[in-house]
Design brief:
single chain; mainly beta; 1 helix
């Protein structure tokens, strides 16, 4: 399935600490990069986005940092037909893997 993905960089430097990570209320800044991974699940799509945006040759290497602990990824899950609706799934980057979260305050 083809997903859409947006990355929100956490603006709180303490969020990068593995013992802290993302906290609701942290200031997030959306990046201009949009990724469309092909994956089996929303979490697998988040894994692909993380891998892509942490390569030395990543598409945003000249304008953005890599994805780190405390950052948030919004996965756009497309509708399933004939009667389904699309939705967002949100993941906070943890020191190992992802933490599913609700839509953060201030994120759209």
């Amino acid at each position: 399935m083809k997903y859409g993905a947006n990355v929100f960089f956490n603006q709180n430097p303490a969020a990068m600490l593995p013992t802290r990570g993302f906290k609701d209320g942290d200031e997030l800044r959306i990046t201009p990069i949009v990724v469309f991974p092909e994956a089996e699940s929303a979490q697998a799509a988040a894994d692909q986005v993380f891998t892509l945006l942490n390569l030395d040759a990543r598409p945003n290497r000249f304008i953005e940092r890599s994805v780190s602990v405390g950052d948030v990824i919004r996965i756009v899950v497309p509708p399933t037909f004939p009667n389904g609706e699309g939705h967002f799934e949100w993941f906070a980057c943890a020191d190992i893997g992802w933490t599913p979260i609700k839509q953060p305050k201030g994120a759209f």
